[in-house]
Amino acid sequence: MHRGKKHGAKTQAVSARWQALVRFAQLSSTEASLSARAARAVSTPNAERVRSSTPRKAKAEKHFGVTEKQFKRYYDEAQRRKGVTGDELLVLLERRLDNVVRRLGLARSIHGARQLVTHGHVTVNGRRVDIPSFHVRPGHVIGLSEKATALAAIDQAIEQSPILPPYLAFDPATKVGRFVRLPVRAAIPVNISERMGVGYYSR
């Protein structure tokens, strides 16, 4: 009889410990589930923002022919300016010399415009500038070297050039252009969101 009582008490103790372990496992599972939900709630908006901005950023890099490193540098500079970061970023990219040469119709692509610049065929205010990232300012006059003005490829590019943005002026007879004023976002002829890099770099 005494032995039976001992066995019964031992069985009850084992059962109690087992129930405690089950409750602990259930609580741990619940806490883990809640933690995972909280983590998703915090990270999902940011992850979605990054994913949605990445294609736009890549599109901008391709359009302006800049590298990831260059794009980040322009973004950092745009952030330091007083205006809307996305707008300021587009304006900075638009002011690159190779882009202005392309906009003036002197080349059919950004890569063609860059070649003209790096080969020394482009002048700014009468002086040769062979740096594609050179920032053009209002009042700057963009021309071509004597050799470049005779190139058939440039004549063809001018004939096929799109409508000139309002912040530029160009004389097809002399092949000389002028950067009239700083562009505003609405006047920049590019179908890219102003938030192209904001979501990506503001992680």
Mean pLDDT: 81
Number of β-strand runs = 5
- Euclidean distance between termini CA atoms: 72 Å
This entry's quaternary arrangement is: single chain
Question: Considering DSSP H and I runs of 4 or more, what fraction of the residues is helical?
Answer: 55-70%
Q: What portion of the residues fall into strands of 2 or more residues? A: 5-15%
Q: What is the alpha-carbon Rg in Å?
A: 32 Å
Shape: elongated
Total DSSP helices:
8
Your description of this structure?
This protein is an alpha+beta fold and 203 residues long. The protein is 58% helix and 8% strand. It has eight helices and five strands. It has helices at 2-64, 68-80, 85-94, 97-103, 110-118, 146-149, 152-159, 198-201; strands at 122-124, 127-128, 141-144, 168-171, 176-179. Helix 2 crosses helix 3 and helix 4 (97-103) packs across helix 5. The longest helix is centred in the first third of the chain and has 63 residues, at 2-64.
